[in-house]
Design brief:
By secondary structure, the chain is α+β, with helices and mostly antiparallel strands. The protein is 23% helix and 37% strand. It has a single domain, classed as Alpha-D-Glucose-1,6-Bisphosphate, Chain A, domain 4, CATH 3.30.530.20. It contains three helices and seven strands, in the order E-H-H-E-E-E-E-E-E-H. The protein has a seven-stranded antiparallel β-sheet with strand order 1-7-6-5-4-3-2. A hairpin with a 3-residue loop joins strand 3 and strand 4.
């Protein structure tokens, strides 16, 4: 059976190290409301968007220039029946040099079509990853959610 986790990827002209640094600048591309450590192995941070979404994440893999993996420790959605749908899932960023480009492969492992939030969450990730994170890597300026 085909893997149904949400995945997306893009390529940029910047180095793997520049991409790695941008990924770990979570406030620069996801949300200015992130609190905690986002740039070291074992770091833990929280994300929230209004009263709609909150989650607590820990960094379980941190390989400079190559890979970052987050594990969702706790999650809350106000728009799903199962408020904790993301809990226990993993979010992975893999970075590789492909010719003259750097490829970033994003996967939310466990975010599957059976989830009530799949459409909303995959659309949001698509925008954050392919829009905001890509912009942060390429131009130094992302489009994160602003502070409330």
């Amino acid at each position: 059976m085909k893997d149904q986790d949400f995945t997306t990827s893009f390529s940029v002209d910047q180095t793997p190290e520049e991409a790695f640094d941008a990924i770990n600048n979570v406030r620069g591309w996801w949300s200015e409301e992130v609190e905690g450590s986002t740039n070291q192995l074992g770091g833990e941070f929280t994300y929230h968007y209004k009263d709609v979404h909150r989650c607590r994440i820990t960094i379980t893999e941190f390989v400079p220039g190559k890979k970052v993996v987050w594990r969702v420790l706790d999650n809350y959605f106000d728009f799903t029946e199962d408020k904790s749908e993301w809990k226990g899932t993993e979010i992975s960023f893999e970075i590789a040099r492909k010719g003259e480009k750097t490829e970033i492969r994003f996967a939310h492992l466990g975010l599957v079509p059976e989830y009530e939030c799949f459409d909303v969450c995959s659309n949001a990730w698509g925008s954050y990853i392919n829009g905001s994170l890509r912009s942060l890597i390429a131009t130094g300026k992302g489009k994160p959610n602003p502070k409330e």
